[in-house]
Here is the input.
Amino acid sequence: MFDEPRDIVPHDELSDAERRAFAALPRELAPPPALEERTVVLLRQRGQLPIPLSTLRRGDVSRRPSWWITVAAAAAIAVFFSGLAVGQYIGMRNASIVAMATARNAQEAADRVQRTGDLYVAALASLGRLSDTANVAERDRARQTAMAALGAAAEQMAHIAPDDPLAAAVLRGLNLRNRTAGSEPPSRSVIWY
Amino acid sequence: MNAAAEAVKQDSDRVLAELVLGGDEPAFRLLYGRHTPRLYLLVLRFLGGMEADAEDVVQETWLKATERLNTFRWEASFGSWLSAIGLNVARESLRKRSRREEQWNDETDMAGPAPRDKVDPLDLERAIRKLPDGYRTVLLLHDVEGFRHEEIAEQLGISAGTSKSQLFHARRAMRASLGGYGKDDRHV
Here is the structure.
């Protein structure tokens, strides 16, 4: 860039016109305003000036690429449908548990009816074998109790299976018997299970 | 600017610089606004009017200055220190540009139109811009910025003799570019 010094440097002064011309040259020129902002941003990035919080927030948003919104929306939709699926699964599972519990209760009830009915029939059979020795009042009370139990059982059967012909026939027979009994007041019996 | 005003400004520069060291952005902007117009024009002239390069150099100068601010001992003015940094950055930019300096033919250069006793500042700017980088650097430091040859030599890492030689050839080239103005009233 620079020439080597020469042994003899000619003496050369500026003329008055040259001096005036140099003196008239401007000494300052405003740079483009954007240069200051660029410089400040670089100083912030280098940690020599603090980054304002407001700039940080704006910067975070602006630095996010446009696909970020798409990904966020897709993630939100995925979370929503995942929640929906899990909710449906849990609901179905609970319904299955309830259904299984209901079925188990119904079976237990049927078993209880079966056992009670067996015991009741066995008790009537025992009473029948003892009919010779038992007095009339005891036999009559046992018969009334058996008929009341049969009527109650037939009514329950009619609730469970309204089209069951045997239950309907039992109920018709009992009604007919009550009507033909005349003025004889029906005896009331309480059956305790 | 008188000495008192310069002292006030220097003190003010120092206060601002200490605030900048503490990360005070408004203080930096004040310091920037105070010194950049002069730095920008100086660098722009050094780079021969390349505005984009001048902006890059000014930016890099402030980055370096802020980085080295805690090492500045305030024996010179802040503006001179900043200009020295800017000059080094500008020279580095010139080296990167690898622009080949024009080879001036002295005999051809000196044969110009009739001398003039006035010169348009715009013509002078253009003539300075057309100078080879080495010539332009010394001419600007000496004739525009007012540095002595010893100071220029120290700043550029050359000898004072080289500085004088460069200035002599720079002035001849400038006069040739201007058409030989002012030769008639030159004080020899």
Remarks:
- The mean pLDDT of chain A is 75.
